[in-house]
Design a protein that fits this description.
Rieske Iron-sulfur Protein; three-stranded antiparallel β-sheet; binds FE2/S2 (inorganic) cluster
Length: 115
């Protein structure tokens, strides 16, 4: 489990809610869909706003609060037939903690830690 990093406590993300965390200086959205946690890039591919903090989660679909692009948090794919998608990250739950395989830092960025 060494490639995984702890990013949150499971109790911080009740069912039907989401949370933004930062790993390697990148925003990751955590979503609780019927008790399963999914992790995706938290930057909407349209204009980069937070999907987890400003979007609306309905089942497995998060809809951006700005211009309503929608993504399936289970796959990262568009939920409305567009070509755009968001990165997904593997999730593990252990002892009430949420771990993910973190996104790689942007080139040239110093290596950050989960916050
Ligand atoms: S910023 Fe998300 S749809 Fe425009």
């Amino acid at each position: 489990m060494s490639e995984y990093v702890k990013v949150a406590r499971l109790c911080e993300i009740p069912e039907g809610t989401s949370k933004t965390v930062w790993v390697n200086q990148r925003a990751v959205g955590l979503f609780n869909v019927e008790g399963t946690i999914y992790a995706i890039s938290d930057a909407c591919p349209h204009e980069g706003v937070s999907l987890a903090s400003g979007g609306d989660l309905d089942g497995p679909v998060v809809t951006c609060g700005y211009h309503f692009w929608a993504f399936d948090v289970r796959t990262g794919e568009s939920a409305d037939g567009m070509d755009e998608c968001v990165e997904t990250y593997d999730v593990r739950i252990d002892g009430g903690d949420v771990f993910i395989v973190p996104p790689k830092p942007f080139p040239g960025a110093s290596r950050g830690e989960a916050v």
